[in-house]
Amino acid sequence: MTSAWDRRSLVEQARVEELALADWLPGAVTFSPHWQDVIESLGLRADELVTRDDLLRVPPSTQADVSAVGGTRLVQRPTESQVKAVASASLLLRIARSISGDQREGKRELLLQEFKPVHVTRAGVADELAIASSRADIDRQHRVGARAAQLLGLGDHDYLVSAVPAGPTAEFWSVHALAMGSSMLALHPRGHEQGLEHCVDAFGLMPTTAAACAPQDAISWARQLQRQDADVSRVVTVVLVGPPVDDSHRAAIAEAWRSAGALEPDLAVRSIWAPDVHRGVWAECKQGTTGLHTMPDLELLELLDPVSGAPTDRLGDLTLTSLGWSGTTLLRYRTGVEVESLVTTECPACHRTVPRLVGAIAPGRWQPELQRRAGIATLDLRTVAVELDAAGLSAWRVELFRKGEQDSYALELGGSLGEDDARRIAARLRRATGIAPGAVRLKADASAISGVVAVEGTPFADAR
Known about the structure:
It is a single chain. The chain is built from 12 helices and 19 strands. The radius of gyration is 24 Å and the shape is globular. The protein is of the alpha/beta class. The strands form 5 sheets. A 6-stranded mixed beta sheet has the order 4-3-5-6-7-8, sandwiched between helices. A 5-stranded antiparallel beta sheet has the order 9-13-12-11-10, with no helix packed on it. It starts with 9 loop residues before the first helix and ends in a 10-residue tail after the last strand. Helix 7 (about 135-150) packs across helix 8. Strand 5 (about 210-215), helix 9 and strand 6 (about 235-240) form a beta-alpha-beta unit.
């Protein structure tokens, strides 16, 4: 384990993972009431969970499984006796040192720093999950930010202006951690619900070398800066806070910033992102657009089939274990983010060896499994809407109806689509929701098609 975090071989990564799990996992399942209930229901003990194979005995979960009372039962709240019973050797050694230094008060301070929640953000669908962090977690976030800045080629010599609105969001805190971890000077001039115009004058306050914003704001922000004749000549990096965009969008963003006055011929347009339930952040490397580089010593990632939950190599539900984190603990949490692939080969651009998320990333598949209430399968219309939007459809209509003891639905699609398109979209919906459309109708006139309608009996009973 002599290599840096981003240069370890797969064998070294596996060894680090093994040590980190043995150090963290028994406490993670004991200190969080939810996970304690889960392992007890499986007939397991905390001291039996120390390896990756042990972790895989814990079934994957979704937001529906953990969102009771806002997910507060996920938060680690250990008693001193629990810590003594299952804490790792390294934590016990730190406690012993704190006692020798400041006796009982030293132990209390260490446990407060490690486990007491001091910061909470909202996450998940409709912000239904509260993600808590301890002081130790916040220190870890800053370390993650330093790593992300390293990937982006940014450091303490840089000056950053962010157009991400201030607020308790994962996007804002990722930029905050990027700046704090790397010791760069950063301005956050945009308040909640304020427009991009609040982020123009900031370029006159310092020699700005980097700009951060949501992907959808990057071009319009550059045009505003151009109209106001702001000095962006020193900008060498545009940081997009969101999943990576495609090559054409990336090129259009770069051209907009060059038109606004960015003089760097190799202007880098790179992304940072992670699911909002994760307090870390991943980044593309400055050397190329080869996917988001993850941090395997601070999380475990899996791709699971959206319907079956089985491991898959491609196009799966990104599943997260928050390795080493206190506060809110996540074990094999299905984020609902559809990822094209998770690769473990060396990055061809920067030669780092960490796993990378490569290809399309589509957040929002929050509950790909069926929900069951009173034994009846129910359709999650939010997932249907997200899938149809991701498929590029703007004119569609869903009718809910009953088919025996199960909810079913019919899908009406507008525009110039063919039968092959209909089959492709139906297969996509089945993979995402677990329920295939009971009927699909194509309609050339898209003007009157939109929304969701609940019907009884036969779908498309109207004469349209």
